[in-house]
Amino acid sequence: MNDETPRPTDQTAPADQPGAAADQPVEDRVNNRSQKPTSDAFKRFMGSNWAPAEIRQDLPDASAPFAARRRKALSEQFEGERLVIPAGALKVRSNDTDYRFRAHSAFAHLTGLGVDHEPDATLVLEPVDHGAGDHGGHHEATLYFRPMAGRDSEEFYSNARTGEFWIGTRPTLGGLQARTGIRTADLSGLEVAVTKNAGAVEIGGVRIRLLRGSDLDVEALVDTSRINTGVDLEVSDGLDAQLTEFLSELRLVKDGWEIEELRGSVAATIAGFEDIVRVLPAARGHERGERIVEGAFFSRARLEGNDLGYDTIAASGNNATVLHWIRNNGEVRSGDLILVDAGVEADSLYTADITRTLPVDGTFSPVQRTIYQAVLDSADAAFAAVKPGLRFRDIHTTAMQVLAERLHEWGLLPVSVDEALSPEGQQHRRWMPHGTSHHLGLDVHDCAQAKRELYLDAEIVPGMVFTIEPGLYFKNEDLAVPEEYRGIGVRIEDDVYVTDEGAENLSAALPRTPDDVEAWMARLLG
Ligand code: GLY
Ligand code: MN
Ligand code: MN
User: Is the pTM of this model over 0.90?
Assistant: First the structure.
């Protein structure tokens, strides 16, 4: 794509054109790859004779009432304080091309907005009198963003990052307000909105709390305001961290809308696993067969969702013992197992996180089946334990008990089961080095900033969604295990929804037992 149009800041003629400035700053040279007309005649012509933009009647998003309740909970927690939650900015991938935009999960949670929404936007919760805010809360929320420019504007045709001519339609102020139920305002008003009356509370200023790590420009704005008003930066860092923590904890229990989104992500992910089985014959024997598997899943993710929730692990043979194998450039060999850990992220940005370990030829060998069954038994024991009131950390304890016993039966543990399971031992972790469960939602590792007592040490409650994902990994180079075990890695990962009675396996429709996996593969491969 050649950007042939002028940009407002781009008045310097390219160096290979007559009149080029020899001392053109390097930061301007990004535009030198093409010629850009700058004449007034061109601007007049480009700015005229476009049909008016279609007037869309935007309706409220299904997420809007749920997001309103989340903002109310946030308001309850931080009465009297200004809360600033940026969506984040576009990120350069290479020179002047950007990654596809993906908003910070806290912003998505509080606005209900998903795919494409909305680079540079910031949600500001402005404190008002007690109970006088939105929905009876103590704040008024405003979404500051850059609305789509009119077709008579220079931005329309000249801005390759935001102009409709280049990237397609974007929301208007009225449209986004109708969809979210949040008042909207032009991004140009953000600086005043964030900084007005800000300052030390002791002298009557308004305290700002910022979600850090999302948008460096907004961080600079807040930090500058704090410095200018004599607010202690170290203390402010602590206050900001409390906001981050609370926003993470606010997602520990999912509402009905989130559960439906997760069900959709899981369904698309299961379809992606079916696609994987169908391409296994093509992957087998190809020098980069793992990429064929990865590509098949990615097609499904883009077709049914927004993207992958995380980079797919397509790990065949010994690569399955490399926990974060995302290089996916290995062969898929006949007789091996292939471990695939993949999740479709929905347009709402909720993601599934599922792992299946499949026999490349459709049939497990006896030793593969033995190892697989141990992992399955461990997962099933964890599932059976899950019910409201169980401590989150005890899911892992339950899964490890089964694996340690099995490793002991196989003669692999150098100590007793009890000694291995004691804090001083942990020898079984050589072959199962990761956690068994993590929360799942907008982030694959959701709620990661929650306090330990609300996560690992907490009792699970209805509405929580997390994974159960034990594994066993025997590396080729592991001389502590018999040769026949080496080069085998197995993980089985499912997504669990805690209900009043116990747990629902959201991904139960994807076969898990060795017999069911074989039958399912046989059916798909005809
Ligand atoms: N796919 C990352 C995980 O399972 O945690
Ligand atoms: Mn996981
Ligand atoms: Mn996973």
Answer: yes
